[in-house]
Amino acid sequence: MVSYHGKGMDEQTILAVLNGEFIHREGSPGIQTGAGLALKIARSFLRKHNSSLYIVSKPGKGSYCYFHLPAHKQAVLNQELEV
């Protein structure tokens, strides 16, 4: 699980991230924040490994992002043989 104690995201922003859309929010004048690129890359990686990205967030409070990666069958078999 990754937690971030920044601005947080509203439901519309979370849905946009989970749908693979690029997010861009303006911070202070001339400062870009919350591009969403890292979440887009993570989501793409997880989809290729039959997993999903889950986001729990509240504006002004921060965000929690978590995922589950399934074990590779061969790794499970090797672990069973070592017992």
Give descriptors for this structure.
elongated, alpha+beta, 36% helix, Heat Shock Protein 90, single chain, 83 residues, two-stranded antiparallel sheet, 5 strands
Q: Give the CATH level 1 class.
A: Alpha Beta
Quickly count the domains: 1
What would the average pLDDT be, to the nearest integer?
Answer: 75
Large-scale geometry: elongated
State the CATH topology. Heat Shock Protein 90
**What is the terminal separation in angstroms?**
29 Å
The helix tally amounts to: 3
Strand portion? 15-25%
Q: How many β-strand stretches?
A: 5
Structural class label = alpha+beta
What does this protein look like?
The protein is α+β, with helices and mostly antiparallel strands. The protein has one domain (2-82): Histidine kinase-like ATPase, C-terminal domain (Heat Shock Protein 90), CATH 3.30.565.10. The protein is 36% helix and 23% strand. The protein has three helices and five strands. The protein has helices at 11-18, 37-48, 73-82; strands at residues 2-4, 25-26, 32-33, 53-58, 62-67. The protein has a three-stranded antiparallel beta sheet with strand order 1-5-4. The longest helix is centred in the middle third of the chain and has 12 residues, at 37-48. The protein starts with a strand and ends with a helix. The model has no long low-confidence stretch (mean pLDDT 75).
